[in-house]
Each structure stands twice: as structure tokens, then as C-alpha cells.
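Build the 3D complex.
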Amino acid sequence: MSTTPRERNARCSIARSLEVLGEKWTLLVVREAFFGYTRFADFRARLGIAPDVLTARLETLVEGGVLERRPYRDAGQRQRDEYVLTEAGRELKTVLGAFTAWGDEHRPSGFGPSVRYVEEATGEPVRVGFVTEDGREIGPDAVALVPGPGSLTSAA
Amino acid sequence: MSTTPRERNARCSIARSLEVLGEKWTLLVVREAFFGYTRFADFRARLGIAPDVLTARLETLVEGGVLERRPYRDAGQRQRDEYVLTEAGRELKTVLGAFTAWGDEHRPSGFGPSVRYVEEATGEPVRVGFVTEDGREIGPDAVALVPGPGSLTSAA
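Done.
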């Protein structure tokens, strides 16, 4: 590849969102896993992440149940682990979709979206939104956050 | 309040998600802003965050266009700044909604959800999902991530 990880991340809406919103590597590893990458060397090359940081982030994701280790062995090589999304990991698709939409809108790179979300069967673009139980989509402005049963706000 | 920030965070799906997924404070500050808190002392008391860390996170959020400073002065006090969600900040509602759903499902606290999302007009629960351009909701398994125009993956 002729491009650097820095250039790739500069074009990635999620990366730009996470520059504001948190520690970026974990969700970027998850993004690469959604693209089908599973191996330490691939994550490292695509993200330009230091090996010790990548090791720590993979450990966090495995402990958190987002990735699972699977041993593999290439011909003539020692056995290594690859990292595959668990069901919980695959369900982060909505989180990534929400981050991408926000970054595309509020932190655009000038190159256009780096990731698009499409209906697999039709190729039709999809967006992340709020949906009522009877299937009506409603805009975020019509949605309120309220304390739930696990909140201490209402009890305090 | 009789409860500690540690207890409050233990019940918060977003906090538990971010223990796996990134640096937690920024989105938690945003969550508190959605609940209507705007002041340094409120963020500090509700999150149990060290003052220097909170100062740094607020600075990040202001620079990133998520919060804006507004001066206020209580009677007999010096002028201080409060922190109010910008339009970009308010549009993080979908990101928080996606994180909450994931945390409720995959990192439950045992106390039930700490935040619920409801249609303001009806009180009806809403969920975050993928919606096609013609308004059909489709499950995440039917959605594919593909490189967009800003991606270097397709060009490499």
C-alpha cells in the first residue's frame, strides 16, 4: 500500500470522532475486524499502531468479549492467534454506524465518507436512527433521555 | 446524594461499554449534559472525576465543537463558565443510544438500564437501528460495511 496509516485515519470518520470522544484504537480495531481483518500484522499495518499498544487493546477486546482468539498456523510458521468478532462484537455495528454518521457530518475529512453502510441484499444505503417499537423512525430531536430503573439519579 | 460515583457508573451501560471501548469520561460528560447538567461542580460530583481530568475533557469537548462555554454568575460569586451542548453535541444522542443498547445487552449491571430513550411526545420506548432511505428498519445482520469514497482501502 502506498498510503500511510496517518492518511488512512485522517480519512476515517470514526477516527476523527474518537479524537474528540475517546481512546481511538479499540473501535478502530473493531472497524478493521468488520472489514474482515483478523491478524495482528494486518491490524498493525492498517492502523499504524505500536505493537505494545495493539497487544494491550486486543487483550481488552478479548477480555471484554468483543473479539475471540483462534489459533492458526501458516505453512512453515509457528502457531499464532487471530482475532475474530464475537456475537457481541458484531453487534457493535450500530455503535460504529452512529459514530460514522456523526463524524461524516461534524468532522468531515474532505474526501467523503471512508465507510458506507448498505443493505447487503440490495446495496441500498442505510442510516442509523431511532425507531419506535411499532417501527416508526423518529428524529433524534423527538427523543428524550430519561433515568432508567438502574439509575441512581431518580432515587437520590 | 447518598450514592457514590463508582456506584452510579457501575449501573451505567455507557460507562461499562467504555470500560471496554475507550476513554470513558468524554461521553459520560456528554451524557450528563443531556440530563441537563452544565456546571463543572455538577459534572465533578456526578462522575467522581478528578478536577484536572475534567478540565482536560471539557477542553477537548469545547475544541471538538461538542460543548460551548457560556459565562454565568451566581449572586455573590465570581463569573464562571458553564458548558452547554452545541448542535453537534446534541446529535451525539444516536451514539449514546447505540452505546447504551450495546451495554444493556452485553455488559448488564443487574440493576436494569440506567438510561432509557423515549419518544418525547408519547413516552414510548425507542431503540437505535439501521433504516433504509425509504424508511424500512433492517437488522444489523443485513447491513454490510463497505469502503466509501474517502477510503484508501479500495484505492490501495
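Residues 44 and 154 of chain A are 45 Å apart (CA to CA).
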